[in-house]
Specification:
Blueprint lengths: L2 H13 L2 H8 L3 H15 L4 E4 L2 E4 L1 H24 L1 H4 L2 E8 H8 L3 H7 L3 E8 L12 E4 L8 E15 L1 H6 L14 E3 L13 H4 L7 E2 L3 H9 L4 E5 H4 L6 E3 L6 E10 L6 H16 L1 H5 L11
Parallel strand pairs: 3-4, 3-5, 7-8, 7-9
Antiparallel strand pairs: 1-2, 5-11, 6-9, 6-10, 6-11
Helix pairs in contact: 1-2, 1-3, 1-4, 2-3
Length: 304
């Protein structure tokens, strides 16, 4: 059996679609399909069922996946201990929420790559998360601790969220002195059926009656909607406090807390390049604690 065919099998099992596996493998879907058929012929087993949702593992495919991941883990451990220099090289794929990825990790990433120039970092910062369980990423910064999967998880940091608006919006809008007053205000928030994590359903913590009039799947887009004076809305303090056009409203009445979790596939824990990144990110969080917790001094004045 060709090990490269097994590598292709692993990529498709994790991505569940040939088109998703193609960029990772550097192959076109037709070639991937041909190689999978060859592997199935070699093993005399059907490894995938073709469903509307993609390539789903058969029982035999799941058994092979378990075996292939053990082989892969051994190979990674050998590579990780081969030499210090080679271990601190290669690609590191990191998944994070859009706001945290773009506003916290991205501006500071040069501090990591400057120390480890042979590590190439792929930062996936978007609405939703890639799955560390399916080995789509090496490190994931998630909004909750996963309850299943062969994963290692620990809390990275807590962070605060607050209500933000522009002074111009507040001057022209109805009085805003208490959370109940938000019923008379234009609010922005997430598109309800596109919320990818229950931790983002925070409007209900303020008032279950609140329905955002202007919605977006992007937290950065919501921030720009608020900054344009169209609406008020909830933002992470590390985002809202950093925007000079915004001010935090009802600071003593609306205070929401969430957490970020570091998640790594168990068989990758201990690889030097991953451990270095985890250590670097943890140190950054310590330095940024006031910003994350919403206690850093800001130039704009609060109301409420």
């Amino acid at each position: 059996m060709d090990w490269d065919d097994l590598r292709i099998f692993l990529a498709v099992a994790r991505a569940q679609r040939l088109s998703r596996a193609a960029p990772t493998l550097g192959m076109d879907p037709t070639t991937i399909a041909r190689r999978l058929r060859r592997l199935e012929g070699t093993l005399g087993r059907r490894l995938f069922e073709h469903a509307a949702t993609g390539h789903m593992l058969t029982e035999e495919g799941q058994q092979l996946l378990d075996q292939a991941e053990r082989i892969e883990a051994h190979a990674l451990n050998i590579a990780g201990t081969a030499s210090k220099e080679s271990a601190l090289a290669g690609t590191l794929r990191v998944s994070a929420s859009e706001g945290f990825g773009t506003r916290i990790i991205a501006p500071r990433l040069h501090r990591f790559t400057g120390r480890f120039p042979n590590i190439r970092v792929d930062l996936i910062a978007s609405s939703g998360f890639l799955s560390p369980s399916r080995r789509e990423v090496d490190v994931a910064v998630m909004l909750a601790r996963p309850s299943t999967g062969a994963l290692v998880a620990r809390k990275l940091t807590d962070y605060a969220l607050g209500l933000y608006a522009t002074p111009g919006y507040l001057e022209s809008a109805p009085r805003l002195e208490a959370p109940d007053d938000l019923q008379r205000h234009v609010m922005t928030g997430y598109v309800t059926d596109q919320i990818y994590a229950p931790e983002l359903r925070y409007l209900g913590e303020i008032d279950r009656r609140l329905v955002p009039q202007v919605r977006s799947t992007s937290i950065n887009a919501q921030a720009e909607i608020i900054a344009s004076g169209q609406a008020c809305g909830i933002l992470p303090c590390f985002l809202g406090d950093a925007m000079p056009a915004l001010q935090r409203v009802l600071r003593d009445r609306i205070a929401i807390q969430r957490s970020f979790w570091l998640v790594v596939p168990r068989d990758l824990r201990g690889l030097p390049r991953i451990d270095r990144f985890l250590g670097w990110l943890t140190d950054e969080m310590t330095a940024l604690a006031p910003m994350l917790h919403g206690t850093a001094p800001i130039a704009t004045a609060d109301t409420g």
